[in-house]
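F.,

This is the one I mentioned.
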């Protein structure tokens, strides 16, 4: 997978304005996760938002927290979490 395909930008969807830097992120400058500080070269995927970035691992930690906050995750939600973490930990 190329590095440019690992980054998803939500800036244009929110602002309806094309941001050349986000659209043309084919430079060698890494995109850094605003939560864990890892660059896009060290994570599975990265999502760019307006002024903030989040990697797939931090996203799943947040999703896991929100699901488990209710103390009773559904069977389907737990399967998804288990699959994700098993693939990341390989």
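My design for it:
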């Amino acid at each position: 997978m190329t590095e440019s395909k690992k980054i998803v930008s939500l800036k244009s969807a929110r602002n309806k304005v094309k941001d050349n830097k986000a659209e043309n992120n084919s430079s060698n400058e890494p995109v850094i996760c605003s939560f864990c500080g890892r660059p896009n070269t060290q994570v599975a995927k990265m999502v760019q938002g307006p002024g903030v970035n989040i990697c797939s691992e931090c996203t799943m930690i947040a999703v896991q927290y929100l699901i488990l906050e209710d103390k009773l995750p559904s069977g389907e939600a737990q399967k998804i979490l288990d699959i994700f973490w098993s693939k990341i930990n390989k």
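The first helix runs from residue 11 to 15.

Talk soon.
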